[in-house]
Design a protein that fits this description.
- The chain is an alpha/beta fold.
- The chain has a single domain, classed as Rossmann fold, CATH 3.40.50.300.
- About 45% of the residues lie in helices and about 15% in strands.
- The protein has a 6-stranded parallel beta sheet with strand order 3-2-4-1-5-6, sandwiched between helices.
- Helix 1 crosses helix 8.
- The two termini are about 15 Å apart.
- The relative contact order is 0.19.
- The protein binds adenosine-5'-diphosphate and magnesium ion.
- The site of adenosine-5'-diphosphate has 18 residues, from helix 1 and helix 7.
Length: about 210
């Protein structure tokens, strides 16, 4: 099985990158598949914190490995031998972001729906394309939207420029962040409606 690389990146922080990367790794890790989540957001390493919280709260063992990576060399070394590599990017695109995007099969671009988030995240997508990353490798995910109308407006703006936007968004819900406080993924929330939506989002991502 060839290795598949997934990059979760954004220009703005706090747009649900880590939450999505953590859930994506969990959903990719079916039996017989080796998955590593490379957290490159030094020194925060949010997904390591999520993994630690999971242990503290007695959650089920994670079916994937989480590793902190300070640079591209570490990602290269620590991802050897895994079937899936999920890279949780740092905010503020850098040379490293382009390096990872170059090696990624799928570039996931989470963004909140306000113009102050959309504009820099769109700029990142444009600059990735300008550096040779094919548009069809990138997909936006709308996150933390407070309402359906804001989600729809943001979707229109992105699609008007021809960008792919995942059909299922991750609207703002306190249960998603409190799940994280216990080291759970968004698809492990108790609320059935929220669980369903997170499940759909992951399913759509897995199809890319
Ligand atoms: N859909 C959501 N609803 C509510 N809170 C969310 C949602 N997605 C993420 N969060 C919370 O927002 C914060 C930032 O998310 P995080 O994944 O760390 O962003 P990033 O990695 O892009 O900086 C975290 O506290 C997280 O729990
Ligand atoms: Mg993060």
């Amino acid at each position: 099985m060839a290795q598949k690389v997934w990059l979760v990146a954004s220009q703005k922080g706090g747009v649900s990158k880590s939450v999505i990367a953590y859930a994506l790794a969990e959903n990719l890790a079916i039996p017989g598949t080796r998955v590593v989540l490379c957290d490159t957001d030094y020194p925060q390493f949010s997904t390591l914190t999520l993994a630690e919280l999971r242990v503290q709260h007695g959650g089920d063992k994670l079916p994937f490995t989480v590793v902190p990576c300070k640079d591209t060399g570490e990602v290269g070394r620590k991802s050897k031998g895994f079937n899936h590599v999920v890279i949780d990017g740092a905010p503020h695109a850098s040379q490293d972001t382009f390096h990872y995007a170059n090696h990624a099969d799928v570039v996931i671009l989470p963004t909140r729906t306000a113009i102050l988030d959309l504009t820099p995240n769109l700029e990142l997508a444009r600059s990735l394309e300008a550096r040779g990353i094919p548009r069809d490798r990138m997909v936006f995910v709308l996150t933390q939207s407070p309402s359906k109308s804001e989600t729809a407006t943001a979707r229109t703006i992105l699609q008007y420029e021809g960008w792919a936007v995942l059909e299922q968004d991750l609207h703002f819900a306190t249960s998603y962040s409190t799940a994280g406080d216990r080291g759970r993924t968004i698809s492990e929330v108790r609320h059935p409606g929220l669980k369903y939506k997170a499940g759909r989002l992951l399913e759509q991502l897995l199809r890319r």
